[in-house]
């Protein structure tokens, strides 16, 4: 079985296991992690393995992850979908604030276009709603950028059901990013709405920040042992089985972990496996 696909926004086929770029920058999403050459090599290896969705953000680095994507992959192939985010300003390791005024969102989007060497961003995601700015103004800014041809599809990051329902009344929403994994299913209601609307759900922390790959996750280890797989592969395969709209984009800076993550698409879980894994997290 190959990496299954999802039709993002109704017109962009992407393989459901993509690559997040947070693992290419330093701790707290600040500065470099390794060499630029190593990061470029990993991005190219991902595409060579069939990855068609690269998920990044302007505040990773900040700016560094987008630069690396362009250095490694531009000119982009026709099948490659590049997604990025704006609306958050990073000021230090694990330090950031939201910035959702229309002029700020426009400035961020246009800066991402330059760094990524693109005329249009396939998926531009509002990284957070700014509570100090009317939602209509934030969504309106994205709608204007879309009308100008600077972004193709609009996505939202970290939203409630109520916020998503409000948003889809104003703009077409192609994707949502919320936390979701075997142990954290707090966004199950958002996932259900995405399923009903045909919206891609890109779960962040798909491996539970590493918790699902370490010793102690008994059910995960049991299923992994039965299939000759790793715990991480089981966690990713569960997401693929859980819903057809789930498109995990695990980040890594390791070629070995990249290959491991992508090989999870070949793991076929039985009903018994799924029942066992469903008991891992709270509903």
Strand order of the largest sheet: 3-4-5-8-9-10-11
- CATH architecture of the domain at 7-177, by name, is Alpha-Beta Barrel
| CA radius of gyration | 18 Å
Average pLDDT number: 95
Q: Residue ranges: pLDDT <50 for 5 or more in a row?
A: none
Q: Percentage of helical residues?
A: 25-40%
DSSP, total strands: 11
Number of H/I helices: 10
Description:
With 283 residues, the chain is α/β, with parallel strands linked by helices. The chain is 38% helix and 17% strand. It has a seven-stranded parallel sheet, with helices on one face. The chain has a two-stranded antiparallel ribbon with strand order 1-2. α7 crosses α8 (231-242). It is globular, with a radius of gyration of 18 Å. The two termini are 29 Å apart. The relative contact order is 0.14. The model has no long low-confidence stretch (mean pLDDT 95).
Question: Quick recap of the structure?
Answer:
The protein is α/β, with parallel strands linked by helices and 283 residues long. The protein is 38% helix and 17% strand.
């Amino acid at each position: 079985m190959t990496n299954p696909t999802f039709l993002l926004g109704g017109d962009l086929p992407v393989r459901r296991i993509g690559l997040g770029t947070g693992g290419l920058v330093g701790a707290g999403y600040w500065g470099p992690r390794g060499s630029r050459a190593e990061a470029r090599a990993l991005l190219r290896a991902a595409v060579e393995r069939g990855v068609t969705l690269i998920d990044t953000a302007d505040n990773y680095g900040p700016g560094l992850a987008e630069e690396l994507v362009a250095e490694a992959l531009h000119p982009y192939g026709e099948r490659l979908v590049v997604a990025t985010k704006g609306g958050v300003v990073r000021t230090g390791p694990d330090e950031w604030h939201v910035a959702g005024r229309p002029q700020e969102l426009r400035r961020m989007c246009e800066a991402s276009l330059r760094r990524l060497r693109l005329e249009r961003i396939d998926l531009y995601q509002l990284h957070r709603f700014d509570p100090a700015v009317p939602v209509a103004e934030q969504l309106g800014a994205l709608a204007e950028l879309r009308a100008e041809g600077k972004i193709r599809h609009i996505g939202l990051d970290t939203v409630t059901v109520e916020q998503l329902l409000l948003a889809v009344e104003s703009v077409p929403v192609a994707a949502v990013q919320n936390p979701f994994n075997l142990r954290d299913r707090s966004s199950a209601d958002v996932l259900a709405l995405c399923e009903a609307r045909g919206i891609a759900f890109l779960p962040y922390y798909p491996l539970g920040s590493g918790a699902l790959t370490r010793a102690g996750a008994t059910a995960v280890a049991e299923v992994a042992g039965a299939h000759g797989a790793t715990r991480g592969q089981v966690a990713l395969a569960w997401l693929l089985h859980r819903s057809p709209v789930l498109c995990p984009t695990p980040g890594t800076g390791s070629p070995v972990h990249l290959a491991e993550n992508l090989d999870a698409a070949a793991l076929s879980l039985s009903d018994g496996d799924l029942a066992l894994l469903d008991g891992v997290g709270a509903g």
